[in-house]
């Protein structure tokens, strides 16, 4: 069968000049190359559609089978909740540094923090009162008493807390006692008072004494009592160096009336409450004054001082409990008698810690009564994990609700009063098919090993549904508006031929957009972008291959006149046939230039074998009915749209259709676009207003871009109104402190680079964000502690040498420190001759420049690590490789103790720092840049170092985020231009599309500034994806404009008429898909996804249906087909009714038995022959007249 030409989407109604009769012809000026290429592509789409229609059942079965099999891959999906895995840039220096840290240490964190923050219920109230501290003690004490039972064991704080620097004691009894008593590291303002001891749960038993606890322990007195029974000189020196003193019993009591307040407390006798502000001024100490100093910024928030710098008031208190990391807890109890019967593992250790942390938060939040003047905010690392897990969970209710809403909308939108034309079932099937395509795409992602995250589970199902259903509406609209005369068996081919290019263009651009968004090097967003691209690809395959099979099956239902949805029942209209007898025109005049005139004998669409048009002729009437007025004047001439419309105009006839449509049913979006929207939009004044409006919007948006700040904090992610959000808000306001470390790597000689290490520490300490230590405290780094310890034992040696207690041949009469110095001074570092006693008086452990002699740097490191556990723990050095253990025995007589193994060259060490005052992202960026600059300077001196900590893990991305964003958008706009130019074969049109998309991106960015949405990796992905999503709203109008003839205004109108309905339905479907995001418990989802994507959809709708048509009507490219007219031999006398639309006037030469004659012209194109192309000779056709065919023509057609 001959095919109509697939060169372009010719309008079903060709425009006719009002005066001349015409013979359509294509001149040499037409753009033949683009037409030929698109014709070839459309020919392939036509063949594909026809094949799918012929084998629709098989295609549907195989498609559902394939998609269903891929959807099973969801069982292998892995949801990633590890912040480091989600947010650290892939391949970045931070990623490499993190890998180096884990390679050397196994894990970065030495402990986990559990925090209590107390604030007054009345904002701004002073909290430095004994009453407020008493309530804080109540909450902290409740939290410290938490116990959980797991694996048949009871786990309390003393078992799982982090203990800093437990010393090794040779005396077994003392060692066990110290192990039980050694305090947990708890940073609390209560440590300024005796009550801080109540948080320590350790106890020991000695015969003849009550249980020893920190509330009644005086270490000095205990050592005196134990002195006669054990040699504790080394332990005594250790406590003296740590400046333990009387520990807690020498501190004032918050409540001096407490019966357990020790007599040694300064206010025990006076019974006066202490001055809280005065006691907390300068911070507090743990049990060791030297190594456990808690600075004010760690304990107090919202501080105010007098002119002398003395603390006056504060608005918040903070207590921090440190727990062991899972690996530390596993190592601590591995092989212990308490865990030998439970198969102890690191996973079990992690489970114990998480259970304790959850119970800790629960009890701490319930510790104070609701009517208390203070409120407690508790948080732990397990709480953060729980938030991320909750954030990543799929909300089945919202997913089901969103898809049900979409099903209802699709069904209602496609329902028609005419049962045979209704497509409600098609809408239902289309939404279900897209849902299956989304599931199969996600299943494919799981099979490919792409991990899921919160963006995948919370956003992608709804976003993909909205995008996928857009093409469903486009195909369904095109299928119902097939050109008259299309053979039944070619309907699907015709549909794909007309819409396949648009669907391919939008889908390819969406995929390219999401693939370009994967350039953002954040793993969570890269995974989301890749998943979105794959899901869009699966939806494209489903729409182009499987959905046409659904339409083909529905076409069979409609052909069989079955009810929609309930397809087992026949339509009540199917039995009603309106038989119309053929009429003879006789010698009446018919317009010159008519290519074909056809009739049918029934009121249903009939396809002619020799024509691509179908015309219905109504029964005789006694007068002519003028056609309705057309707002577009004589530029548009259209035949009656359908049998239903013509039957609807027939009133007062005996053969009136039984299934006449209601007047409201004849209104649709296409009708609105043609008769109301387009005429109004394309007026000169309206065009000017549209251009001014969008120009103002662009200018305002450019200003809004200056308001966009970088950043994304946990308070943006955690649901508002929750206890977790209250804690994070209080922490951000009062305790914006971050623990960081300056890591030094291997690859250089530490022993010969001490000066460079000291300089690096000095440069880092001078950064604005680094919290300086108190003036009375030495820098808290391992190199300073190591050097100071060497200087201390050197001083002890000098005293012992001067007093004669240590000689060249003996050190036994000297002090412990003097003996250690003796052993170090004789070391040579030479394996052949390791000892040289002559160095005792010629060498110093630390030279005049404050540097340690390189030859025994590593030997001394072994001794320091073994002999000063408290200093080592306070330094947080985390040496790798760890120095070997070596026990000092002052009374060794074999000489073996003189040989000290040297530590291996260091490959990892770190200096700890505290960053403060980091409120905004700009503060973080400034601190990061300063730290990187300090490390770069150290690198020039040969020291390899990098900063480590959460600010560098999660905020370093902002250093290059905007550059990455601009690069991705620019590259994507170029790719979009190339794709559009390739598929539209029109660079002019591609340029206009890219211009509109760039405006949309800028405007969306600016509106984010006005909405207060910060720029992070997530909005960047949406902004990049907005280019691809925006194509959905522009390319259909652009393609309709290109493939229509006439003036620019006419072509813009025809483009709007054809695309207004599917574009609007697509936008509504996208909004319905996003609507479920508005019900999320996470304000982050609502603000960063729902709001941004909703604004994007509305911008796309406005730009696609308002700005682009106006631009096309002014700057649009010329049509691809130029139709030229030339004089015919006869001139038709036409009557132009009111409204300007062409119609047949009441002429005496026309038989009065015809109420209306509908004609149509075929424009023939002449590209090279293509498969499936219809070739129509373009020559001066002889004028058709009734004399040439007579009544036989109509009589023969009446039999069809």
Keywords:
1200 residues; alpha+beta; Multidrug efflux transporter AcrB transmembrane fold; 18 strands; elongated; disordered N terminus
Please, could you describe this protein's structure?
The chain has 1200 residues and is α+β, with helices and mostly antiparallel strands. Among the domains are: 31-76 and 393-483 and 523-559, Up-down Bundle (Multidrug efflux transporter AcrB transmembrane fold); 109-390, no CATH class; 780-906, no CATH class; 959-1120, Multidrug efflux transporter AcrB transmembrane domain (Multidrug efflux transporter AcrB transmembrane fold, Up-down Bundle), CATH 1.20.1640. 48% of the residues lie in helices and 6% in strands. Strands 2, 5, 10, 13 and 14 form a five-stranded antiparallel β-sheet that branches. The protein has a three-stranded antiparallel β-sheet with strand order 16-15-17, with helices on both faces. It has a two-stranded antiparallel ribbon with strand order 1-18. Strand 3 (147-150) and strand 4 (153-156) form a beta hairpin. Helix 2 (56-71) crosses helix 16 (424-447), helix 23 (684-705) packs across helix 34 and helix 26 runs antiparallel to helix 31. The longest helix has 37 residues, at 523-559. The protein is elongated and about 120 Å long. The chain starts with 24 loop residues before the first strand and ends with a helix.
């Amino acid at each position: 069968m001959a095919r109509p030409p697939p060169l372009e989407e010719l309008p079903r109604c060709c425009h006719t000049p009002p005066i001349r009769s015409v013979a359509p012809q294509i001149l040499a000026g037409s753009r033949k190359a683009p037409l030929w290429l698109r014709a070839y592509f459309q020919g392939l789409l036509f063949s594909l559609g026809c094949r799918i229609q012929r084998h629709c059942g098989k295609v549907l079965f195989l498609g559902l089978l394939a998609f269903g099999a891929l959807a099973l891959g969801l069982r292998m999906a892995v949801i990633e909740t590890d912040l480091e895995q989600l947010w650290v840039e892939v391949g970045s220096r931070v990623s490499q540094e993190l890998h180096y840290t884990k390679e050397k240490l196994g894990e970065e964190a030495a402990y986990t923090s559990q925090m209590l923050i107390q604030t007054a219920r009345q904002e701004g109230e002073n909290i430095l009162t004994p009453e407020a501290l008493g309530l804080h003690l109540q909450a902290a004490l409740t939290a410290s008493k938490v116990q959980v039972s797991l694996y048949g064991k009871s786990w309390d704080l003393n078992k799982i807390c982090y203990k800093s620097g437990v010393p090794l004691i040779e005396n077994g009894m003392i060692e066990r006692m110290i192990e039980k008593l050694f305090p947990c590291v708890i940073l609390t303002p209560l440590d300024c008072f005796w009550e801080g001891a109540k948080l320590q749960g350790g106890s020991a038993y000695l015969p003849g004494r009550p249980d020893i606890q920190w509330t009644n322990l005086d270490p000095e007195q205990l050592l005196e009592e134990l002195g006669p029974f054990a040699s504790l000189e080394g332990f005594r020196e250790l406590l003296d160096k740590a400046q333990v003193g009387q520990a807690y019993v020498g501190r004032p009591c918050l409540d001096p009336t407490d019966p357990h307040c020790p007599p040694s407390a300064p206010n025990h006798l006076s019974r006066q409450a202490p001055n809280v502000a005065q006691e907390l001024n300068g911070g507090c100490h743990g049990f060791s004054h030297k190594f456990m100093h808690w600075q004010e910024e760690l304990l107090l928030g919202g501080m105010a001082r007098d002119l002398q710098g003395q603390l006056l008031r504060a608005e918040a208190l903070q207590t921090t409990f440190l727990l062991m990391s899972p690996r530390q807890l596993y190592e601590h109890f591995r092989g212990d008698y308490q865990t030998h019967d439970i198969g102890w593992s690191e996973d079990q250790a992690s489970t114990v810690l998480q259970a304790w942390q959850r119970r800790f938060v629960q009890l701490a939040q319930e510790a104070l009564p609701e009517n208390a003047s203070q409120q407690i905010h508790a948080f732990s690392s397990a709480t953060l994990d729980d938030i991320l897990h909750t954030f990543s969970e799929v909300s089945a209710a919202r997913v089901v609700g969103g898809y049900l809403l979409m099903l209802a909308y699709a069904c209602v939108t496609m329902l028609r009063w005419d049962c045979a034309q209704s497509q409600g079932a098609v809408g239902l099937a289309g939404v279900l098919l897209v849902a299956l395509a989304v599931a199969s795409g996600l299943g494919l992602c799981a099979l490919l090993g792409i991990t899921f995250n919160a963006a995948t589970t919370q956003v992608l199902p709804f976003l993909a549904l909205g995008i996928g259903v857009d093409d469903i509406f486009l195909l369904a609209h095109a299928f119902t508006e097939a050109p008259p005369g299309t053979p039944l068996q070619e309907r699907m081919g015709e549909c794909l031929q007309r819409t396949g290019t648009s669907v391919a263009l939008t889908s390819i651009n969406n995929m390219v957009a999401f693939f370009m968004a994967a350039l953002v090097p954040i793993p969570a967003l890269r995974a989301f972008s890749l998943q979105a691209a794959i899901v869009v690809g699966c939806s494209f395959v489903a729409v182009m291959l499987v959905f046409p099979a659904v339409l083909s099956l529905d076409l069979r239902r409609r052909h069989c006149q079955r009810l929609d949805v309930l397809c087992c029942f026949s339509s009540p209209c199917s039995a009603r046939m309106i038989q119309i007898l053929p009429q003879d025109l006789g010698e009446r005049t018919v317009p010159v230039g008519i290519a074909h005139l056809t009739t049918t004998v029934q009121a249903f669409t009939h396809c002619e074998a020799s024509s691509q048009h179908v015309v219905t002729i109504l029964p005789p009437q006694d007068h002519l009915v003028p056609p309705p007025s057309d707002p577009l004047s004589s530029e548009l001439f259209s035949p009656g749209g359908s049998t239903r419309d013509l039957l609807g105009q027939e009133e007062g006839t005996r053969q009136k259709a039984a299934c006449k449509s209601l007047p409201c049913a004849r209104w649709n979006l296409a009708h609105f676009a043609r008769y109301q929207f387009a005429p109004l939009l394309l007026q000169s004044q309206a065009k000017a207003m549209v251009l001014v409006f969008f120009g103002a919007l662009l200018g305002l948006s450019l200003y809004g871009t200056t308001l966009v700040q970088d950043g994304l904090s946990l308070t943006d992610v955690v649901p508002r109104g929750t206890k977790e959000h209250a804690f994070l808000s209080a922490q951000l306001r009062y305790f914006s402190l971050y623990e960081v470390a300056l890591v030094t790597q291997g690859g250089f000689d530490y022993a010969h680079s001490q000066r460079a290490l000291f300089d690096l520490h000095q440069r880092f300490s001078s950064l604005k964000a680094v919290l300086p230590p108190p003036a009375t405290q030495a820098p808290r780094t391992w190199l300073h502690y190591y050097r100071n310890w060497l200087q201390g034992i050197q001083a002890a040696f000098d005293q012992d040498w001067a007093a004669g207690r240590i000689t060249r041949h003996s050190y036994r009469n000297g002090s412990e420190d003097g003996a250690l110095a003796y052993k170090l001074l004789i070391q040579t570092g030479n394996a052949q001759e390791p000892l040289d006693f002559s160095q005792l008086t010629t060498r110093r452990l630390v030279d005049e420049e404050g540097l340690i002699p390189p030859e025994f740097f590593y030997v001394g490191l072994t001794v320091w690590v073994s002999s000063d556990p408290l200093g080592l723990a306070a330094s947080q050095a985390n040496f790798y490789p760890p120095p070997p253990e070596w026990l000092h025995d002052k009374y060794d007589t074999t000489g073996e103790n003189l040989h000290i193994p040297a530590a291996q060259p260091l490959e990892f060490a770190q200096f700890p720092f505290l960053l403060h005052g980091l409120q905004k992202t700009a503060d973080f960026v400034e601190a990061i840049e300063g730290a990187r600059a300090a490390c770069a300077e150290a690198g020039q001196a040969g020291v390899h170092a990098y900063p480590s900590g959460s600010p560098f893990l999660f905020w370093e991305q902002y250093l290059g985020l905007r550059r990455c964003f601009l690069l991705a958008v620019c590259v994507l706009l170029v790719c979009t231009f190339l794709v559009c130019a390739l598929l539209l074969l029109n660079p002019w049109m591609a340029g206009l599309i890219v211009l509109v998309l760039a405006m949309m991106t800028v405007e969306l960015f600016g509106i984010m500034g006005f909405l207060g949405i910060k720029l992070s990796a997530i909005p960047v992905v949406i902004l990049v994806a907005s280019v691809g999503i925006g194509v959905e709203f522009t390319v259909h109008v652009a393609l309709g404009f290109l493939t229509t003839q006439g003036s620019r205004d006419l072509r813009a109108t025809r483009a709007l008429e054809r695309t207004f309905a599917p574009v609007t339905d697509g936008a509504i479907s996208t909004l319905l898909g996003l609507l479920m995001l508005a019900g999320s418990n996470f304000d982050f989802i609502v603000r960063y996804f729902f709001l941004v994507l909703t604004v994007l959809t509305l911008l796309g709708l406005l730009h696609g249906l308002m700005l682009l048509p106006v631009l096309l009507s002014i700057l649009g490219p010329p049509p691809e087909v130029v139709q030229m007219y030339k004089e015919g031999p006869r001139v038709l006398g036409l009557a132009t009714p009111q409204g300007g639309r062409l119609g047949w006037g009441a002429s005496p030469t026309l038989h009065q038995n015809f109420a209306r004659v509908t004609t149509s012209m075929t424009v023939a194109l002449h590209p090279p022959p293509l498969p499936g192309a219809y070739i129509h000779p373009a020559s001066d056709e002889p004028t058709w007249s009734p004399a040439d065919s007579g009544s036989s023509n109509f009589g023969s057609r009446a039999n069809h």
